[in-house]
Amino acid sequence: MAIKKDTAVTRGGRDSVRFEGAVNPPVYRASTIAFESVEDLDAAWARRFDRPYYGRYGTVSTLALEQALAAAEGAEHAVVTASGMGAIAGTLLAILRPGDHLLMADTVYQPARDFCDTHLARFGVATTYYDPRAGEGLRHLIRPETRVVYCESPGSLTFEVQDIPALSRVAREAGALVVMDNTWASPLGFPALERGVDIAIQSCTKYIVGHSDAMLGSAALNDRGLYERIKETLCSFGYACGSEEAFLGLRGLRTLSVRLERHMRNALEVARWLETRDEVERVLYPPLESDPGHALWGRDFTGAGGLMGVMLKPAPAAAVRHMVDGLSLFSLGFSWGGYESLALVTTGHIRRTAVPWTYSGPVLRLHIGLEDPQDLILDLERGLARLRDAQAHGKG
């Protein structure tokens, strides 16, 4: 029976008979898997992608999470890794060979850019960064050796929305694969495979785990041969995730739909308030009607998370720090996607090579959590008052 994604995230990977009635698969801690005979052990190699073979290939817990994530993504297969960066690195290493060419969105997650510029370059893979708004204009950057077009929509820190169906058409014509980091919206907010993506990557650390207490990554796809190649590569590099983390990923996945709805509702309320403030130049959040990517977001997305950028009007760095340091409901830290609100000063950390970032004012990244949005607004209002006070008294 065909089911909707809200049902898939609650039912995927479950087997009440196999797990003796447990509604969520329990934790199976294992490295060694015992077999009945030499013949059974030898035969198990051929089935190592589908059943427990050795802990690095997956335990009962990690295989259950892979089944559940595949259901959520609308994919035939999913591979889980120890982190989102592990999913990015393992996927690219599985596909690319020396002499190949990678087209990478200029707005990509910074560690992914660093991986391309260091490790892939050392392996003989060339990377070209492209304007994330290129759409079908990407065609002029395609080379005969282009193997992957990598997308991240919206882009890290500056939140440009990409025309994924157009990029996918260009890549398909050239025989290249489309890989997308879809963490911001999750598979519930953006059906990546339906939009033409070949491999959808998640930093499950974020919305899928949802509680800031485990690190996980995943890659979902339909091609069986490519799936086996990616999983074998991940196992060779030792990127396997632990059973405890898999359990936390499964537990978080069950409530993903209702949490995302609340994150987006809260974020929209906070973003619309921020737009009214004299201290704010622009709010970077695609669900906002004023956002440059809003039309594409409305066409292709079915939801959003709570992550946004805030471009403040010019202010001294010390005044911005005074604002952020005094926030009481926004923790200061990396990552996002948990139930809590976070703030990060991103000024000076926005790296672009294809399309320069020219705004000279301070920029914040906010993750709007599950707190009452009016409380968050009051906290930000007090923060902006500190910003004004610091400017008035010449701090900075």
TrEMBL record:
InterPro entries: Cys/Met-Metab_PyrdxlP-dep_enz (IPR000277), Cys_b_lyase_bac (IPR006233), Cys_met_metab_PP (IPR054542), PyrdxlP-dep_Trfase (IPR015424), PyrdxlP-dep_Trfase_major (IPR015421), PyrdxlP-dep_Trfase_small (IPR015422)
Keyword Lyase: yes
Statement: the UniProt record of this protein carries the keyword Lyase: yes
Family matches, as Pfam families: Cys_Met_Meta_PP
Pathway: Amino-acid biosynthesis; L-methionine biosynthesis via de novo pathway; L-homocysteine from L-cystathionine: step 1/1
Signal peptide: none
Residues bearing the modification N6-(pyridoxal phosphate)lysine: K206
Cofactor(s) needed: pyridoxal 5'-phosphate
Entry keywords, A to Z: Lyase, Pyridoxal phosphate
First-tier enzyme category under EC: lyase
Record GO biological process: L-cysteine catabolic process to pyruvate; transsulfuration
Molecular function via GO: cysteine-S-conjugate beta-lyase activity; pyridoxal phosphate binding
Catalytic reaction equation(s): L,L-cystathionine + H2O = L-homocysteine + pyruvate + NH4(+); an S-substituted L-cysteine + H2O = a thiol + pyruvate + NH4(+)
EC number: 4.4.1.8
Name listed for the protein in its UniProt record: Cystathionine beta-lyase
Lineage: Bacteria, Pseudomonadati, Pseudomonadota, Alphaproteobacteria, Rhodospirillales
